[in-house]
Each structure stands twice: as structure tokens, then as C-alpha cells.
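Table S2 (text version). Query chain:
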Amino acid sequence: RQMCIRDRFYLSSIQLSMNVFPIISRRWNMVSQFLMIFTLVSIWISLIWGVVILVSGVHFWLKHSDFKVDKKALPYYPKVTIVVPAHNEDVVIAQTAKAILNLNYPHDKVELLLFADNCSDSTYEECLSVQALPEYEGRNITIINRKGTGGKAGVLNDALKMAEGDYICIYDADAMPEKNALYFLVKEVLKDPERRVAAFGRNKTRNAKQNFLTRCINQEIVVTQRVHHVGMWHLFKIGRIPGTNFIIQTDFVKSIGGWRNGALTEDTDISFKIMQSGKLIALAYNSEAFQQEPETLKSYYMQRKRWAKGNYEVVLSNFKHLFGKGNWRVKLEVANYSCIFFWFNGAIVLSDLIFFANVLAIVLHIFFPTVQIPFAFDASNIYIAQLMLFNWLLMIGLYLLQINVALASQFGQATSKQIWLAILSYFSYAQLFIIVSLDSLWSIIMDKVLHREGTTWVKTKRFAE
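Corresponding C-alpha cell output:
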């Protein structure tokens, strides 16, 4: 009797397995196929969006490819207060201050505020030494040895209280403006001063040839500013205030309550405020400043993590505008940031997981024949392999196309070495964005869970040139 009961139990177990396992297998196949299709479609949508912006950028440069730059006198020259926030910047502050004082703009229309913000080095003394130079005698220069809080945004809010100019212009301590940079910024806002309350220029890498990292950063900046920023402005009249080399109406900044103290990316934060008001941030594509980029991986990683965290926070705080009533440019920009940081980035991560899971299964199958490939459309897996290969070729093709178009639009950048660098950076430097994004998102989540201060500012190390 016990043997009969045992045999019935085994038989029942076998029948249950025969009924349950096929169901689980069918459901897993449905899930895996859905994940693959979602990943592929998501990446294709991101590629289409990239092509749209690229075409817009190309169209812009075809219209503005004339090398004859118009520098005729402006109808009038508004007074501009130039603010330089400097925290332990004694290595670079003197060069930047001199470049600003030598700008091709009426000297009596420029007020320079140099802030040595909570410095423990000789930044303040370096500022004083520049002010004491004979060639700058009589210039409107104020040097502030600041001990306040709020980071860069706190400095800008202090400057807002002191500013005498119609516009405030911001330069980071390492950003040396080209001689006509301020002229082109002012020229752009004067085309429509009622709507264009701000204008932004482009930034170039001063130390691009220092090492492999700075060369990759240089390519990234060229693509961002020569394709993405230009494409968004040309197609949608959407501008983005960078951290440096921009001007903004003083009265407008006061009307929106200034900068948000402690903001990790005060530039992105105020950009959304400007768009919410219905005003424009104009692109002054001829305005250039030369800034120093991180030369070590650690310094780079901490800088980009701060940027990513700041952008995440701004996007999340503005996410409500995506569904409510409001300015369509705000909706488009929120959607754009959300797709890049959440949807498209998530699709790339999922694509990588699918790829590595299949590779692992193929290796295990050699030793354990019963192991099946987890993500496949059919037993041979030929279709998914073809789709993944095609998808990968499209991604790297667009990546290289963006870089080459951007480099071709800037004198001296389009070389054969840059092409090889672009290919190498795709498999190394470009992949860091995924790691930085995931780390930043996790850091924000833990900031909320642990109720910790999430606005810690990590200083980017400067280097003597």
C-alpha cells in the first residue's frame, strides 16, 4: 500500500511537471520576446531622434558656413556685469580675469565681479594682483573674499544683489573667453530683447591634447555643442544655458527669484525657469570660451556624477509639466531629458544584459547541453542575432556620423586621428555614461531613503598650463 501511494505521488508529480513547465516555458518565451522587442524598438526610436537632431544641425551649419563674420557696431551697448565664481582656482584665475578684461567690448560698459568663494589657496591674492596691473587701472573691478554658503548658485545670488549691469554674464574661473565672445552674446539677445532674455555660446577644451581622456571629452563637447545644441535651437528654438559663457537679463533673474542655492546644476535649473516663462535662450554660435577639462578619471567621474545627479533632480522636479498645461518647449525638453536618462539609457542597459545573458548561455551550453539560450525568437536564434548586429551597426554608425559632422563644422578638428579616436572611445569612454547615470540614479534614491544631504560639491582639479 505504501508503494502504491508512493507511485501515485510520483505519477502526480510528473503530470504536474508536464502541465506546469510548458506553461512557465511559454510565459518566459513571451516575456523574453517582449523584452527584446521593447529594447530594439526603444533603441530605434532613440536613433531616429538622433538623426532628426543631426539633420537639423547640418541644415544650420549649411546656412551659417560663411567664414566672413559680421562684427559691425551694435545699435547700443548695454552694461554687462561679468561674474566669475572661483573656489580654490589660483592656478587659472589670473588668465581668465585678464582674458575678460581684454574683451572686445566698451570698457566703460563692463563691470567685473571676482568672487574668491571660501578659498583655502591664493585665489584672492591672484585676483588682487590682476587688479593692480597698470593696464587695468581705472577699470570697474570688484574682488570679494566670500565666506558664504550655497555653492556657485549662492555666489551668483550675491552677485545679483551687487550687479549694476543690464545683463549678467557668467564665466567659470577656468573658462577664458575669446576676444569677441561677449560681443556675440549681446548681439544675439539684441535681435529680440523682449523674448531673448538670455544667450549662450560654445565652450572649447583648452587641454584637449593632454591625454586620451581629454581627447574623448573634447569630442563629446564638440558633438554636444555643434550638433545637439545647434540642432535643438535651429529646429525648436530651445536653448540650454551652460555653466559658463552666457548672459541673462538682470531684471529677469530677479523676477524669478534668482538661482536656487545649493543646486548641483544651477544652469539646467534656471534654463527650465526661463522656458516656463515663455522666453527664449538664444544660441550665439560664434561666442566661444576655452575651458579646462578633467585630466584624471576620478576627477572626470565625480564631475559627471554631479552633473547627472543635478540633471536628474531638475527633470524629476519638472516632470509634472509634461502632462499639465504649460509651455510646449518645457514639455519637449522634459520629454527629451526623460527619454535620454530613463527610457533610452534603460533600453541600452537591457540590451547589454540580453547580450551577456545569451553569451553566457552559449558558453554554458558547451558543457551542459540542456542549457538553452534565454532570449531567442526561435531555436536557432538567428533572427535575434541578425537584429542585434544590425542594431549595433546602426548605433555605432550614427555615433561616428555625429562626431564627424561636428568635427567637420569646426576648423582643425576633422582629422583621420579623430576618426580612430571616435571608434576607440565608443567602446570605452562612451560606455562610462551608462555607469555614471546608474550610479547617479542610485545615489539620488539613497539620498531620499537615508535623508542625507545630496548636494555635496566635489572640486574639479585644475592644472597649470
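Notes on Table S2: DSSP finds 13 helices and eight strands in the chain. The longest strand covers residues 280-291.
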